[in-house]
Amino acid sequence: MLTPLQKQTAQAIVNLFETSSARGDYGAVTVIPGDTGHLSFGRSQTTLGSGNLHALLQRYCDNAGARFGPRLAPWLERVEQRDTTLDHELRLHNLLRATADDPVMREMQDLFFDEGYWQPAARIAAGMGITTPLGLAVVYDSLIQGSWKTVRDLTIDHAGHLAEFGERAWIEAYIATRHAWLAGHRRSDLQATAYRMEAFQRLAEQGYWGLELPLVVRGAELSTATLYATPPGCYDGPQPGTRSIALQTPLARGLDVRLLQLALSEQGIAIKADGIFGRTSANLLRDYQASAGLPATGVADPALLGRLLG
């Protein structure tokens, strides 16, 4: 059995692979050319093509406390149908980004990925006799990325069964087999992910089978400080209307900025709702003000926020 900290460390490594953040980027929206999963979202990048994106969003919308549930619900049918035109639907992408500010969505993602990937990985590991935190992290990563069974069988064909060689030797053989499988894959997007196995191989070579902290993985610090930090790009304030939003140094960031950007997006304006009020946001706000017959100041005062946000 892994300790809670070992489990969080294993998951943080995969979070780094998926979204370049140890805490995981709960609002990450990605579309990789050639990826059969199409639109992917969240801490561990659940995909439209697999049907798992619909499962996650339905679960979120079913929660009575979901802040963005009513706004997300009209999209569910197209997500369930795996409508690939959603890959280019900026309004949905911005809404997904905004849900990361809702603690309910973050909790839903944690539960969803735990039930869908971590618990199955733990069962697989237990059945095979894999007991080390690093070994379980490798299995978990393979379930998240896909094709665990294919590479497991290749490893057995090339190196034999785990019981014959011991856990550490077999896991290292699996890592090497998966690295070759990824690097030689016909899909360029999978070829580019061979670094995942290079990171695991480095941890194995250095003897970090227990994933003792602190660690450095792909240049990122894994420590109790980073594992318990606020997730990147998540905002719990300021509340809309408590300040005017304008271009400034440092740039204004926060929940009110995100909701302003989301409201502009829903007006058909091609803006990214990242919660950061930069020059592009100011220019697009100015364009909206001019089209609405308002003074084109590029500043969102409480009155304008009230108009846009209702």
Low-confidence region ranges: none
Radius of gyration: 22 Å
The order of strands across the largest sheet is: 1-2-3
Number of folding domains?
Answer: 2
- Write the H/E string, N to C: HEEEHHHHHHHHHHHEEHEHEHH
Global structural class: mainly alpha
Helix content: 40-55%
What does the largest sheet look like? Answer: 3 strands, antiparallel
Number of strands: 7
The proportion of residues in beta strands is: 5-15%
Annotation field: number of helices: 16
Distance between the termini: 50 Å
Shape: elongated
Report the mean per-residue pLDDT as an integer. Answer: 96
Tell me what you see in this structure.
By secondary structure, the protein is mainly α. The chain folds into two domains: 4-227; 252-309, Muramoyl-pentapeptide Carboxypeptidase, domain 1. Helix content is 55%, strand content 5%. It contains 16 helices and seven strands. It has helices at 4-19, 52-61, 69-72, 76-80, 90-99, 103-128, 133-145, 148-159, 162-165, 167-183, 188-191, 195-205, 224-227, 255-266, 279-291, 302-309; strands at residues 29-30, 40-41, 46-47, 215-217, 220-222, 252-253, 276-277. Strands 1-2-3 form a three-stranded antiparallel β-sheet. Strands 4-5 form a two-stranded antiparallel sheet. β2 and β3 form a beta hairpin. α5 packs antiparallel against α14. It is elongated and about 75 Å long.
